[in-house]
Structure formats: structure tokens, C-alpha cells
Amino acid sequence: MQDEYSDEFSKLVAGFNMMVRGLQAREQQSRQLLDSYFSTLAVALDARDSYTAGHSLRVAEYSVIIGQLAGLSGQELDDLRKSALLHDIGKIGVRDSVLFKEEALTDEEFLQIQSHTVLGENILRQIEPADKMAPYLGGVRSHHERYDGLGYPDGLAGTNIPLHGRIIAVADAYDAMTSDRPYRKGMDHERALGILEQGRGSQWDPEFAGLFLDYFGEKPEARKDAQPVQAG
């Protein structure tokens, strides 16, 4: 009788383990599909403008580097990567005539550009389930806040700016400065690092700007050889 109970228990455990493995496999597939969706969405957004092709992937790459140097890992780092991939999603709601304008923007047009942070947050809030999007909202809304409180959209300062917003701000600024635009040539690596150094503690979080400067200052070839982060 004891052997029969042992056999039944073994079968029960084996069945449970098989079910768990099946659930884990489906969960892994779901994560892979979600990661592919984020990357595809970022690529589609960047493809709208040939001058910004690859921008979101590079910003995600730089953000992950900063996050790793700051001690982030696991889910925290993955949330940061996804926030960075989607940081400019609100630009979908900005008219092409404004977004790609080569001449100086009017005050009204500049306000339209600034609105992409709030638009991006609102877009993500429409995606169900809402709790799955919650980790990405801070980075999307707050990546143009300044450490001194003079940024937008909320005028937050210091560590009141969400963590992802402070990290993405550094990565976004560097890539924007070193990328070509219709109205200007991208600046060189050293000049961009110099501007980040000047803005530490005023425009950008001094810790995260410092980590970026230390890493890329010691590795001047890093940007040239860098590859977009892979979904995972």
C-alpha cells in the first residue's frame, strides 16, 4: 500500500513539474514576443525620420550601460531598457511639419515638440493591462526634466525626477548631440562629452552623467563599436 501511495505521489509531482515547465515555456515565449514588440515599435518610430534611424535603440543601449554601472540588474534593468526604447513614442502625435522643420521653431511649435513626453505617457496608459505598462511611464514622461528643475513637462528637480528619466536624459542627450540632423551636423564625441561634463548637476543627474563620462571617456571607441541592445 505504501508503494502505491509513493507511486501516486511521484506521478503527481511529475505531472506538476511538467505543468510548471509548460507554463514557464509559454511565459518565456510571451516575454520574447513582448520584447520583439518593443523593439519593433522603436524601430518603426525611428524609421519615420531617416535622421533619427536607430536613435531609440542607441538610447536604450546607453541607458543600459549607465544602469549597469549604477548597479541595476535583472528586472530593473529590463524595465529601464524598455522605457528607453519607448521614450520618444509620443512623437507619433507631433505633426511632421513641426517635427522635421529645418528652420527655427515658433513658440507654439516648440510647445508641440515638448508635448511628446505627456503624449507618450498617455499612449502607454491606453495599453492593457495597465500594471504592465506602469514601470515605463516615468522614463517616457520625465526624460526631458532637468536636474535643476528647469526641464519639462513638470519642472521636477533632483531625485524627484523618476530614476529612468534621469538615466535616459543622459543617454538621449548624448545621442542627440552626436547624430546628424537636417539643420546641423552631429558634433564629435569629445565635444559632446564636454557638454555633458559642463551640465553635470544642472541639466543632468551628476551621478549618471559621471558614470557615462567615466565609461565613454575611457573608451573613446565605445560609441563607434557599440551595437544595439538585443531583446531579452
Arithmetic mean pLDDT: 81
Record field, number of beta strands: 0
What portion of the residues fall into strands of 2 or more residues?
under 5%
Radius of gyration computed on alpha carbons: 22 Å
**Intertermini distance:** 49 Å
The sequence of SSEs as H and E is: HHHHHHHHHHH
User: Which percent range fits the helix content?
Assistant: 55-70%
Overall geometry: globular
Query: What is the makeup of the main sheet?
Result: none
Give the helix tally.
11
Regions with pLDDT < 50 over 5+ consecutive residues? 220-232
Q: Indicate the structural class.
A: mainly alpha
Could you characterize what this model shows?
- With 232 residues, the chain is mainly α.
- The protein has eleven helices and no strands.
- The chain has helices at residues 2-47, 55-69, 74-85, 96-99, 107-114, 116-125, 130-142, 163-178, 189-198, 206-218, 222-225.
- The longest helix is centred in the N-terminal third of the chain and has 46 residues, at 2-47.
- The relative contact order is 0.12.
- Residues 220-232 have low confidence and may be disordered.
Explain briefly what this protein structure is.
The chain is an all-alpha fold. The chain is built from eleven helices and no strands. The N and C termini lie far apart (49 Å).
Name the descriptors.
disordered C terminus, 232 residues, globular, mainly alpha
List the helices and strands and how they pair.
Elements: H1 2-47, H2 55-69, H3 74-85, H4 96-99, H5 107-114, H6 116-125, H7 130-142, H8 163-178, H9 189-198, H10 206-218, H11 222-225
Helix pairs in contact: 2-3, 2-8, 2-10, 3-7, 6-7, 7-8, 8-9, 9-10
